[in-house]
């Protein structure tokens, strides 16, 4: 388990092994997500290749809300797997 100490300004330095595992570099943003009373850090560093296909193309059929939910859940699962694998 890693730990960090908060300064009087509310800042913390993540240990190097945690930064390395999350693939964080200086200037990267981190989302802090609360789920069931547990806070999780998620790197927000998005690569250009991950943005491909995010914009709607006129010839594409719109997704149903259910399809959007399924796609979102799949993307979250992929992100969590990538983070666990250290990529």
What's the topology here?
Blueprint: H1 16-22, E1 30-35, E2 38-43, H2 48-51, H3 65-85
Antiparallel strand pairs: 1-2
Please give a structural write-up.
- This protein has helices at residues 16-22, 48-51, 65-85; strands at residues 30-35, 38-43.
- By secondary structure, it is α+β, with helices and mostly antiparallel strands.
- The protein has one domain (16-85).
- A hairpin with a 2-residue loop joins strand 1 and strand 2.
- The radius of gyration is 17 Å and the shape is elongated.
- The two termini are 20 Å apart.
- One of its GO terms (molecular function) is DNA binding.
- Residues 1-11 have a biased composition (Polar residues).
- Residues 1-46 form the SpoVT-AbrB domain.
- InterPro entries: SpoVT-AbrB_dom, SpoVT-AbrB_sf.
Quickly describe the structure.
This protein is α+β, with helices and mostly antiparallel strands and 87 residues long. Helices cover 37% and strands 14% of the residues.
